Amino acid sequence: MMKSRNDSFAIRHGALFDASALAYDRFRPGYPDTAIDDIVSLSNLRPDSRLLEIGCGTGQATVPLARRGYRIDCVDPGKNLLALARKKCRQWPGVSFTPARFEDVELRSLAYHLVFSAQAFHWTRPGLRLRKVARLLGGRGSLALLYNYPAAPKDDLLEMLSSLIQRESGGLLSAWNYEDEVKGWIEEIGGSGLFKDLRMSRHSWHQRYSAEEYASLFRTYSDFLSLPTALQNRVSRCIRRFISRYGGSVCRPYDCVLIHARKS
Q1: 256 SS3 class
Q2: What is the CATH number of the domain that holds 197?
Q3: Chain segment 25-80, per-residue pLDDT in tens
Q4: What is the CA 56 to chain-centroid distance, rounded?
Q5: Does 31 map to a domain?
């Protein structure tokens, strides 16, 4: 199973994200259109479907669904994050935002065709989250989890950079195999008895970053933000120097994983 985040841990790290809202908005990647298309198709969404997003951040997954005309209720505890998301979604009056944790917010039962979460569901309380999602979903409603995972480097440059980051951070920042996390989600959802037709799909894509962009990307990650400030600055300087020395940019591969299930 996945490592549990207790409430105090989640609240503390949520504050880190909110304090880095501008960087999060600018440097966190969005999601490939193919993954969004899969969510719409697998969930059998209609023009009048109502969606709930858990942990919307600054709207990386909200915008592509809002653009398609769906009504979306977004929940996130970060007020700075929500301010940026509201600004991006102001042209879609059907999108609303509530500054709260998913565990705490009062929502109407059986109200949603889809509950989705992009890069955020792991911050919710394990013993409660699936029961609450099932209660909020109407008949044949769906749950969709969307995660961008860093794929294995396909070139020597990224491998060298990864080794440098691990060394400079004293091993606190290291490459990891996300398969265990995906397996954990599948076991948790499949074993809950609350959902059926569990599916998982992968969408490979990539994004190019300048030296400054790649260093700033790390300032949107909780493990990096948890480091002492002096160590954060040292790692950032190493990233910028390395990429500047080797051509000025890197192309980072991602595996976007979609986990989808229907309410039983």
Answers
A1: strand
A2: 3.40.50.150
A3: 999 999 999 999 999 999 999 999 999 999 999 999 999 999 999 999 999 999 99
A4: 8
A5: yes
